[in-house]
């Protein structure tokens, strides 16, 4: 055969081979669906739809469970970044390679762990399918057999709630966690030990015994957390005498005492399932969060952001590489205007009250809430700032202002009959009203002696709108600027007839909180409308100014009349106190047919204004009067 012919034959054969290869390559299916199936499997943990060149679905799933399990509740998402057939065959086998990007959502920021791995498929001619060459590096870079990724949290320091000037109220304080360690005693002792320990620390014996017996054989079962200070009356020796009983030292955020502003400050505890669910992943199981009060309202500010480190480990639990680190960001403090000494005094006065009670103290010059105490402490109710009750005769300060605005003065003569009738309803003065103060008296004397009929008879002339305006001028119905979701008061502007008559003496449909009534007397003392504030950082929204504001002359006239309440009126027990002039007003509001009544007293002296409330009291002067007197005495020290 000639050289030319041999050359032509060779070219023909080469062309046929190339054509065959091109046809085969063209018939190889797209590997993209296989890559999509893989990331779906990585995301779900179910590899049953994957065809394997090595390994199998069960082995791959186990490898992933081992690799990703220690990451706990941290969520991951894998996606295909790119996928293509490889240009060159490997040992005569066609292959395809995909870049798989996996992102771990470590917290609620955009700061996530992200990495890219490679996955390789080989084309099986017989089944005409792409089959995955699976190994651990498909899941994470450089991951070895039986290796894993693990996230470790570094808990952020929780911020403190501070008093005025930055003095810490709630901060980490020493405690002991008391419980039964079932590994420290025989099974025969578990029930008896649990009973003895429950009795020692004064918790429900039956419930604790059930909890201990239901726990695992090696469990430590907490009974109670006790302050580790002078208030602890359970000794180490008493705990250690009980077989299996033990305690662990710890620190948790606490106020100075168990009762200190407790309903206001709130508590911190382990996140419940409901809290975790509502947080959309921000709060995890085991996190300490605010459960109530300021701790709950400002949890995001106080809690900060935990740090997190993700490392790769080998099968021997040795760290091989640190893949991600974010340092913890400590929480910020929440600063309040509270005065530690005054708050402590208020708490002690009503800690064991027989009914819901409250004391609120305000600095009139700037509206700072110095104390906001609610009792009894066991109720957990924030009566001081969120209770809403009929204010009784303490409301007559507002009614008197509405009369001043209609032309009356402290010396104006008014009629105080023993009883009066409005639209068929009879109103009378309180039992024991002095007969000598009936008839024609000065408006200031009507305030001093708390004559009901004077104000009832003025109801229709004043009208609902003007009474509501007077309430606004004294700060009772302003916007809340405390930063704690407080309630001030409510005075409808459309009341008529007997309802309006009853409103004039603080009953009917008007309502006030202890904070609201403290604001009323603070406004008189400041000679301008006071808007109370409690949280100063983070700075709350500035409340709008009331449409009707208190004038200096109006405040002076009110102060003149309220001074007579102290001088010789219903709060004359306070006139023995030394210092500057005291102004005040007592109040009693019957709330049922059995004549049970709320007791109120509001006073001011110098730069402090105080309101005291007792839900079930004998009368304003008798039940609330001693409370405001004690607060003024404490403020004078």
Automatic annotation (TrEMBL):
A GO BP annotation: cell wall organization
Domain of life: Bacteria
All copies of domain Penicillin-binding protein dimerisation, residue ranges: 155-317
Domain Penicillin-binding protein transpeptidase: 358-632
GO molecular function: penicillin binding; peptidoglycan L,D-transpeptidase activity
Signal peptide feature range: 1-25
Keywords for this protein: Membrane, Signal
GO CC field: plasma membrane
Cross-referenced InterPro entries: Beta-lactam/transpept (IPR050515), Beta-lactam/transpept-like (IPR012338), PBP_dimer (IPR005311), PBP_dimer_sf (IPR036138), PCN-bd_Tpept (IPR001460)
Transmembrane segments: none
Subcellular localization: Membrane
Family from the record: Belongs to the transpeptidase family.
Protein name: Penicillin-binding transpeptidase domain-containing protein
Protein's organism: Glutamicibacter ectropisis
């Amino acid at each position: 055969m000639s050289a030319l012919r041999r050359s032509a034959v060779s070219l023909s054969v080469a062309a046929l081979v190339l054509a065959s290869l091109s046809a085969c390559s063209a018939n190889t299916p797209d590997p993209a669906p296989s890559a999509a199936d893989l990331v779906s499997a990585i995301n779900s943990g179910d590899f049953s739809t994957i065809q394997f060149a090595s390994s199998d679905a069960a082995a791959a799933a186990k490898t992933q469970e081992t690799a990703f399990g220690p990451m706990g509740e941290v969520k991951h998402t894998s996606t295909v970044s790119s996928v293509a057939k490889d240009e060159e065959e490997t040992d005569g086998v066609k292959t395809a390679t995909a870049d798989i990007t996996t992102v771990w959502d470590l917290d609620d920021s955009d700061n996530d762990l992200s990495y890219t791995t490679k996955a390789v498929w080989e084309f099986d001619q017989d089944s005409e399918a792409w089959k995955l060459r699976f190994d651990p590096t498909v899941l994470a870079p450089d991951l070895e057999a039986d290796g894993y990724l693990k996230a470790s949290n570094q808990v952020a320091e929780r911020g403190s709630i501070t008093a005025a000037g930055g003095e810490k109220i709630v901060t980490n304080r020493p405690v002991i966690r008391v419980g039964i360690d079932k590994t420290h005693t025989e099974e025969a002792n578990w029930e008896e030990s649990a009973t003895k320990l429950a009795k020692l620390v004064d918790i429900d014996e039956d419930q604790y015994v059930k909890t201990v017996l239901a726990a695992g054989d090696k469990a430590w079962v907490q009974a109670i957390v006790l302050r580790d200070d002078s208030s602890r009356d359970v000794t180490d020796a008493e705990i250690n005498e009980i077989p299996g009983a033990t305690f662990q030292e710890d620190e948790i955020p606490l106020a100075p005492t168990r009762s200190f502003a407790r309903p206001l400050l709130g508590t911190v505890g382990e996140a419940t399932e409901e809290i975790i669910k509502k947080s959309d992943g921000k709060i995890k199981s085991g996190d300490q969060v605010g459960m109530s009060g300021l701790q709950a309202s400002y949890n995001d500010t106080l809690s900060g952001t935990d740090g997190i480190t993700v490392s790769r480990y080998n099968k021997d639990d040795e760290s091989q590489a640190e893949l991600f680190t974010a340092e913890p960001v400590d929480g910020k403090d929440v600063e309040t205007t509270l005065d530690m000494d005054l708050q402590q005094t208020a708490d002690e006065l009503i800690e064991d009250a027989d009914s819901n009670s409250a004391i609120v103290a305000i600095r009139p010059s700037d509206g700072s809430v110095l104390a906001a105490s609610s009792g009894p402490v066991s109720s957990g109710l924030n009566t001081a700032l969120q209770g809403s009750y009929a204010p009784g005769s303490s409301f007559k300060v507002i009614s008197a202002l509405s009369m001043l605005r209609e032309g009356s003065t402290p010396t104006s003569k008014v009629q105080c009959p023993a009883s009066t009738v409005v639209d068929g309803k009879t109103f009378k003065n309180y039992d024991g009203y002095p007969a000598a103060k009936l008839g024609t008296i000065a408006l200031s004397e009507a305030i001093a002696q708390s004559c009901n009929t004077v104000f009832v008879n003025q109801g229709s002339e004043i009208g609902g709108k003007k009474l509501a305006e007077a309430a606004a001028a004294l700060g009772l119905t302003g916007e809340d600027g405390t930063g704690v979701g407080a309630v001030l008061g409510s005075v409808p502007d459309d009341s008529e007839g007997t309802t309006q008559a009853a409103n004039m003496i603080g009953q009917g449909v008007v309502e006030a909180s202890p904070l609201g009534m403290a604001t009323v007397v603070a406004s008189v003392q400041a000679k301008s409308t006071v808007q109370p504030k409690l949280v100063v950082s983070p700075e709350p929204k500035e409340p709008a100014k009331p449409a009707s504001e208190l004038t200096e002359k109006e405040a002076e006239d009110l102060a003149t009349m309220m001074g007579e309440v102290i001088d010789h009126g219903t709060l004359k027990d306070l006139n023995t106190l030394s210092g500057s002039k005291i102004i005040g007003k007592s109040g009693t509001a019957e709330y049922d047919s059995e004549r049970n009544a709320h007791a109120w007293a509001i006073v001011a002296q110098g730069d402090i204004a105080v309101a005291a409330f007792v839900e079930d009291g004998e009368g304003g002067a008798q039940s609330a009067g001693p409370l405001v007197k004690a607060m003024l005495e404490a403020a004078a020290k």
